[in-house]
């Protein structure tokens, strides 16, 4: 079995008071949701890791990171790479499926080496 974690990213509390208004300003209207927080898949089965987002950004950039045990997160791919057809950056056979307000990560056949924590991150500029 593979164990794929899609963590909630809680904020460390308590936040210093001067940072709280800035944080609220920066995150207003922006959200990323990974509805599945824990996925268990048998080897050979397809993988679908959903990432749903809401944003005021006109051209948001979305990233998928993978974190293996005892290591820091590593960038797997972004929608910028995908739009520019830089498919060589897609790691370990994963591919993005993008549209509307989602940027899902998929793979046709799960491998044991896919056991990790996966993060979907949103970035962009409001204009």
Automatic annotation (TrEMBL):
This is Ig-like domain-containing protein. Residues 21-127 form the Ig-like domain. Gene3D superfamilies: Immunoglobulins. Keywords: Adaptive immunity, Immunity, Immunoglobulin domain, Receptor, Signal, T cell receptor. PANTHER family: T CELL RECEPTOR ALPHA VARIABLE 16, T-CELL RECEPTOR ALPHA CHAIN V REGION. Pfam families: V-set. GO terms for cellular component: T cell receptor complex. InterPro entries: Ig-like_dom, Ig-like_dom_sf, Ig-like_fold, Ig_V-set, TCR_variable_region.
């Amino acid at each position: 079995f593979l164990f794929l974690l899609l963590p909630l990213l809680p904020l460390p509390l308590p936040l210093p008071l001067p940072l709280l208004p800035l944080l609220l300003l920066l995150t207003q209207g922006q959200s990323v949701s990974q509805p599945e927080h824990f996925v268990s898949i048998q080897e050979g089965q397809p993988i679908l890791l959903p990432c749903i987002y809401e944003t005021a950004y006109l051209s948001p950039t979305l990233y998928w990171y993978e974190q293996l045990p005892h290591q820091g997160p590593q960038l797997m791919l972004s929608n910028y790479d995908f739009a520019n057809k830089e498919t060589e950056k897609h790691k370990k056979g994963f591919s993005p499926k993008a549209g509307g307000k989602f940027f899902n990560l998929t793979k046709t056949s799960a491998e044991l080496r896919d056991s990790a924590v996966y993060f979907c991150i949103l970035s962009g500029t409001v204009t």
